[in-house]
Amino acid sequence: MVADPELVQPLIRILPHAYPLPPYNLAESVCQRSQILEVSRVCFISSVLEQKQIGTEAGQMIAAKSAHSTLSKYESYWKHFISFLKTNKLDVSEHVLISFFFKLFKQGLALRTMSAYRASLADPMFYGFQIDTNSKVFRDFFISCRTRRPITKTLPPQWEVYKVLQYLKTSQFKNNKTISLPALLLKTLFLIALATGSRISEIAHSLCPVECLRNWLDITSEWPNPNNFIWFNAATQKPANNRILVLRFRQLINLSHAHNTKSNFHQIRK
């Protein structure tokens, strides 16, 4: 079957505009490419779409199609990928992207996390470099990763919220005016975490997180705090990092249970 020239010629004229080449010449130096890729993920996608003659506002909507929290996570993954390119002086290509995913696998990342990296890079790779992260080579790679590192099922929490709430009603924690500072930290931290999860209906009256937080802020208001932190190590009066908060969270759960139990801070939202 011979193609009709009258049909082919219009397509030849249209296709270069509908599907242009990648916006950046592959012959560019690594330094130039690295400088170009230093823009944010959303800006990169929107600028590429604009070069594809998609309107600026429409391109920005497409680039920022995900929720704000998802975009923030994707941005951190994007920066990690750009750092990988710059450190190894690599250009963007399909095999380089596979190498990046393989590096993540060798570092021991869970498959769920690797899949999140893949999702974050899908749009910039597709729009900017015509690399489809759902093509067979990527599907086969992730199947191989799953075979070698199966996804483990998340076990239900081994501790119970009501036991902690009952424990917070004991004499050691009940009175917010006379409570010790370390105990106030445990109580406030737990109730704030609980209030921002899905168990706010279980918090009432004597277990009000607002009152606990108010007392905590009053007591710590005179402590050195140039960066306006909320949480401190009660022993050192220094700002508490994530590790300290997790340890305090686990401490309260272990205190409220008769037997030792494994606890995870994220389980507060279950």
UniProtKB/TrEMBL annotation:
Gene3D superfamilies: 1.10.150.130. InterPro entries: DNA_brk_join_enz, Integrase_recombinase_N. Transmembrane segments: none annotated. Keywords: DNA-binding. GO terms for molecular function: DNA binding. PANTHER family: CORE-BINDING (CB) DOMAIN-CONTAINING PROTEIN, PHAGE_INTEGRASE DOMAIN-CONTAINING PROTEIN. This is Uncharacterized protein.
